[in-house]
Amino acid sequence: MPPKGKGGDAKGAKGGKAAAKGAGEEASDSKGGKQSKGGTAVKVRHILCEKQSKALEALEKLQGGMKFNEVAAAYSEDKARQGGDLGWMTRGSMVGPFQDAAFALPTSSIASPVYTDPPVKTKFGYHIIMVEGKK
C-alpha cells in the first residue's frame, strides 16, 4: 500500500453510504454557508483500531447493519465504553486527516450512520468516523 499524504485519506473518506447520502447534503447550501462547510464544531463518534485489518472487520459489521455504538464497543481501542462518542470537537483540536474527514461528512445517526469508508489513517491508527451534529 503506498504511503498516504497529509490529506490523502480525507478525499476518499466518503465512500459507500457516505457517497450516496453525502453528495446531496453538501450541495445544499441554502441552510447557510457555514453548515455546508461543516461549521466550527462537530459532534463525532469514531471506531479506532491500531491495525487496518481490524478496522476493515468493523467496517464490515457496520455494512451488515450493526449499530455504530455496538461496533465501537466491540472493536474500538479508544472510548469503547461510550460507543465511540468523542463529544463536540472544534476545528484545530483534531489531527489533520481526522478533522478533514469529520467536517466533510454529513450529519447522521447511530441507527443509520454515514461514516468514513475506507477508514481514515492517522498517527493513532485507523478511524471509522461518523458525525452526529454540526454547529
UniProtKB/TrEMBL annotation:
InterPro entries: PIN4, PPIase_dom_sf, PPIase_PpiC. One of its GO terms (biological process) is rRNA processing. It catalyses: [protein]-peptidylproline (omega=180) = [protein]-peptidylproline (omega=0). Residues 1-41 are annotated as: Disordered. It comes from the Eukaryota. GO terms for cellular component: nucleolus; spindle. Residues 39-133 form the PpiC domain. PANTHER family: PTHR45995. Belongs to the PpiC/parvulin rotamase family. PIN4 subfamily. This is Peptidyl-prolyl cis-trans isomerase.
